[in-house]
Design brief:
The longest helix is centred in the first third of the chain and has 65 residues, at about 70-135. The chain is rod-shaped. The protein is built from 11 helices and 6 strands. Strands 1-4-3-5-2-6 form a 6-stranded mixed beta sheet, with helices on both faces. It starts with a helix and ends with a helix. It has 2 domains: about 1-70, no CATH class; about 145-315, Lysozyme-like (3-Layer(aba) Sandwich). By secondary structure, it is an alpha/beta fold. Helix content is about 50%, strand content about 5%. Bound molecules: zinc ion.
Length: about 325
């Protein structure tokens, strides 16, 4: 069997031994041996197997060949190559893992930056919106009606009603969002007479009625209720408005020029003190309940528009 194997190995042509010198002895392979002609390769394991077998005495060249020209180098080289390939593969694997990790880190950092930027932008927008809203719409609740009451000018006569449940309940007026204009509905009566009527309700108890101010036919202004208390004049708007009753000489309800001028002056002062936009905050009793009050300025809307313009331009 061994002989057969050796023969088979020897029969495989080897290019390196054909026509070149032996590595160790410097001898050329024996050309007279037909088995050595031609090219080809023998694997290292086949050669090792062959070298372990005793050479046949009749074929000494065969023994010499298998022992003197072994191919240890190939095996070691291939082992080394495989080892290096494995090392390279492991290195590549580690490198790819590192790159992926770095990419992941970068993606996370980018995401974090975007989230932070978005949060900052939202915070800025919210703050700007809040600040803008405050600038556009100043709060009315900060204005203290009692403070304004203390500054009532001397062209207004303060003659407060006696506190009573029918005309001066002394309920706090905490904020003022508007000014409501009325007409007394009793032609030719004076401001003083109307003030007395409100005060008499404490005794007569016939109805609940009153007004912060009454403007007479000569333009005199009487204040009946302090600005930090409600009056009974404008229905559901009593709680957040200041009321003004105006006297008139005739049933049509048109004001005298003096009454009109005093009304413009008083409304302008109130709008300034309570920081109201006169074009929106100054209304008729009619605008609250639909009642024909003040009659002339309900029947003649253009006269009311003119009044609002006069208030706006006053001061
Ligand atoms: Zn009215």
């Amino acid at each position: 069997m061994a002989e057969k194997q050796i023969r088979e190995i020897a029969e495989i042509p080897d290019r390196r031994t054909a026509g070149i010198q032996d590595r160790r002895t410097g001898e050329r392979p024996r050309r007279e041996c037909p088995e050595f002609s031609g090219g080809g390769r023998i694997s290292g394991s086949q050669r090792r197997a062959a070298s372990r077998e005793p050479a046949a005495e009749s074929e000494p060249w065969l023994r010499r060949e298998t022992t003197e020209v072994p191919d240890w180098g190939d095996a070691e080289y291939e082992d080394e190559l495989r080892r290096k390939r494995r090392e390279k593969a492991r290195y590549e694997q580690r490198r790819r893992a590192y790159i992926m990790k770095q990419r992941k880190k970068r993606r996370l950092r980018r995401l974090l930056r975007r989230v932070l930027l978005l949060a900052a932008a939202l915070a800025v927008l919210t703050a700007a919106g809040f600040w803008g809203f405050k600038l556009i719409k100043p709060s009315q609740t900060k204005i203290d009606p009692a403070g304004i009451q203390a500054r009532v000018p001397d062209w207004i006569t303060q003659d407060f009603l006696t506190p009573n449940p029918y005309s001066r309940p002394q309920t706090a007026l905490e904020e003022v969002k508007g000014v409501v204009v009325h007409y007394v509905g009793n032609p030719g009566t004076s401001a003083s007479a109307n003030r007395s009527y409100f005060n008499s309700l404490a005794e007569t108890k016939t109805t609940s009625a009153s007004s912060h101010f009454v403007i007479g036919l000569d333009g005199e202004i009487i204040q009946c209720i302090p600005l930090n208390e409600i009056s009974y004049c404008s229905n559901h708007r009593n709680k957040d408005t200041v009321a003004i009753e105006c006297c008139h000489p005739d049933a049509d309800g048109q004001f005298t020029q003096e009454t009109y001028d005093s009304l413009v002056r008083l409304v302008r002062w109130l709008c300034d003190e309570f920081e109201l936009d006169s074009s929106e905050a100054v209304i008729r009793h009619y605008d609250v309940t639909g009642k024909e009050c003040p009659r002339y300025y309900v029947r003649n809307p253009e006269a009311w528009e003119q009044f609002l313009k006069d208030v706006k331009n006053a001061g």
